[in-house]
Amino acid sequence: MQRRNVIAGGGAALLAPVSALADGLVLPPELPDGTKEIARLVNLPGKIRLLRLADRPPNYATPTEAFADAITPNDRFFVRYHIDAVPSPPPIDDWILTIGGDGAVQEARLRWNDLLDLPQIGVLAVCQCAGNRRGLSVPHVAGVQWGDGAMGCAEWRGPRLSDILKAARIKPGAVEIYVGGADVPPVPGPPAFRKSIPLAKAKDDDTIVAMAMNGSPLPLLNGYPARLIVPGWTGTYWVKHLNSIEISTTPLANFWMKTAYRVPAGLFPVQQPFASQASETSEPITEMVVNSIIADPVEGGEVERSGFTVRGVAWDRGTGIRRVEVSLDGGKTWLDALLDRPLGPYAYRRFSLDSGFMRRGQYRLVSRATSNAGERQSDVLKANPGGYHNNVPRGISVTVT
Ligand SMILES: Nc1nc2c(c(=O)[nH]1)N[C@H]1C(S)=C(S)[C@@H](COP(=O)(O)O)O[C@H]1N2
Ligand SMILES: [Mo]
Question: Hey, CA dihedral for 273, 152, 213, 80, is it positive or negative?
Fold first, then answer.
């Protein structure tokens, strides 16, 4: 049943047929057949060769090969929307960010230039959808059937959220900061995508409002002109097209906080619990779990028996990566990979391993990472209704020729 999510259970997947798209991209064999049928590589405005999983709302994944590098280029960065209402880009001089709420002493309205006047902070951080790898769950669970491309790592730059909040002044008694974007649904429709974070995370020095991504304006589909960056936390809090902030004395009680993006209580231990949103049975999904991916070679690839290099990246909640092991035999034996210099605790850490001479045949390559906190990828899928936090070591099949 869940055998294929166990590392040692690589046998079944090894024999699964791989389906190649017209231009050669090979999809993870574990994806549901329906997803394999609709997945296409497409170019979008500002985007090259993303894997289309849905159009309305737009959900496009980054192809695995892009994770051979620690930084994901803007034109390959994945796209995830909940509502089919991508806003048109505002003239930058008209853009206004309002900061108010019952936990604010006064309402503030900041313009683009006001944000530029604040100290600018650069943070290298992974944005990963909580549902990344959901499509690899066996049995399958409902939601966008992501393979492993609902993530990316970029250098985000802009003012600290804490500096922005100063313009409205936080009252004692404030508990959460609500954030909203310009992708408001047509009425009547699904509830607007608004999220909240606890005051402590909002005040964290690394929590910023990004006005730039990898040294350029944010692509429209990644939240132009500005988005929230919550390093270490899953992408759901990284609200795009940011235009409203509320300082609140009560927990946000909408669909996106109370129903979606929640996990069974205690299933995924975190360092900084989101107490104001926890219930007896569930809690919001917050900190990412340690994980890794092999990006080179790719699924279905052919490699030389004289030797090849296995490359990929590893990441976690922000403690940093201590170790990555690679298996060339489906998880039976493990070798320590070389780690590149860390780019920062929230960034991808690149790893590589030289295979040495190999005999011809089919091989299953697997990677598994351990964080500086001593957490290692889970050997067994921690099943949950949302299909979140799948960090079971991923195997890919290659042929040594
Ligand atoms: N305004 C807005 N922001 C949003 C979302 C959204 O639907 N609307 N989706 C969130 C989720 S769930 C994820 S995973 C990330 C995805 O970021 P990306 O589209 O830039 O890759 O954006 C987050 N911010
Ligand atoms: Mo997400």
Answer: negative
